[in-house]
Amino acid sequence: MADEPQITVGTGPLTFDEVVAVARHDIGVRLSDEALEAIDRAREVIDHLAASPRPAYGVSTGFGALATRHIAPELRAQLQRSLVRSHAAGSGTEVEREVVRALMLLRLSTLATGHTGVRRETAQLLADLIDRGLTPIVHEYGSLGCSGDLAPLAHCALALMGEGEVRTAEGELQPAEWALRRAGLKPVQLAEKEGLALINGTDGMLGMLVLALHDLRVLLQTADIAAAMSVEGQLATDRVFAPELMALRPHPGQADSAHNLVALLADSGVVASHRGPDCNRVQDAYSLRCSPQVHGAARDTLEHAASVADRELSSAIDNPVVLPDDGRVESNGNFHGAPVGYVLDFLAIAAADVASVSERRTDRFLDANRSHGLPPFLAHDPGVDSGHMIAQYTQAGIVSEMKRLAVPASVDSIPSSAMQEDHVSMGWNAARKLRRSVDGLARVLAVEVLTAARALDLRAPLDPSPATGAVVRLLRDAGIEGPGPDRHLAPEIERTLNLVRDGSVVAAAESMIGELR
């Protein structure tokens, strides 16, 4: 990976795209010269304090509730090793590779600010691990989202010491010492402050937030496409999405979603077939009529969460923090994950609600009393065939779980460290459940798109709009057949899911009408 394109860390805040590129697409990293100089300046402050007889937290004292003990110089290397080893106490399922890479990158970004006091060789080794594709094993449980994501970060720091386990770029599980040696790297012997600087940040929850924001932007555009297909397929009116109606309630997300719906439904033969003075479809069900209100609220929530993530990407999270210009090291509370934890929870609520309204739109297709002429369950031979009956069951099961996942984690707090850390954010927990919610939303939308495409085929000879027709063709070209006798449905749901996740559904619609908002 070292010869591949790299992202430079230390020339300014990382962007969302850079985090995703490193985390998900294995792009490598390098530290800028400015970052290395800033790291050196901060280290000079730490070295000065380490030589002083006056205790300095994190440099010559214990940690947390043990901060009152002054540590003799000959024990300080052991102090840092012990800190990392004891805090690498995670348990449970192995955390996804992309999450760990994001976590490592964001910790490196904080080290590059010159406010942590690590040595340049320590920061460089972290960069080298990312660049070589070596990913420490991190476990599901161990972070309370306060004093940073301690256990997850400690497992990464452990690998820098040549301890614990890592996965190679090829996915092979290896002892860290062996993997470093094979990559031409040497473990680092941690000096004063370094162990603390490596584990005291909100990097795990922030990394998961950035990844979720990236995925949700695609999914909320897909939700508009799915809603347009449902409005069209259920012979609903498009008049309720008119811009003059949206202007009466000027939420930006609502306006953008309605704009998308109008564009997606433009030139639809199905809509045109029932538009006119005889059309009485002006009071469609809420799941159809209020799609831009629900999707728009989710969009506005996403933008708020993105603004929080932007500020976090510009932050230097550590405790204590080095102020090189003043020659000071000061304790602070910036490691508290509340700002990130809140928006992670907000997004889980929004995702659950978008999934819920998607499931309701899908269900209307399947009920012959509400589908305006479509066969029961869109079945080829109702009674012999069940059509998409159980696909809606799948949606309902996912939506039910997403509602449970929408219960906030950030309102909980369990005191730790002998009551020294007596209020924690649970932001890591909020991030973990949001990942499951994002996955669930993608699956629910995939079922709606799959079902709506079948319904639009059943409306023939009426033609769908150019945009929704392009989505139907995308599915058919991917081997997902149109109406007919019952088939094994799970593979078709999975193929549609992949088209939703990778942005192909959005790209198909945009190929006909230009970029969606």
Structure description:
This protein folds into two domains: 6-201, Orthogonal Bundle (Fumarase C, Chain B, domain 1); 208-513, Fumarase C, Chain A, domain 2 (Up-down Bundle), CATH 1.20.200. Helix 1 links the parallel strand 1 and strand 2. The radius of gyration is 26 Å and the shape is elongated. The model has no long low-confidence stretch (mean pLDDT 94). The chain is mainly alpha-helical and 517 residues long. It is built from 20 helices and nine strands. The longest helix has 32 residues, at 427-458. Helix content is 55%, strand content 6%. The strands form four sheets. The chain has a three-stranded antiparallel β-sheet. The protein has a two-stranded parallel ribbon with strand order 1-2. A two-stranded antiparallel ribbon has the order 3-5. Helix 9 (203-233) packs parallel to helix 15 and helix 17 (427-458) packs across helix 18 (466-477).
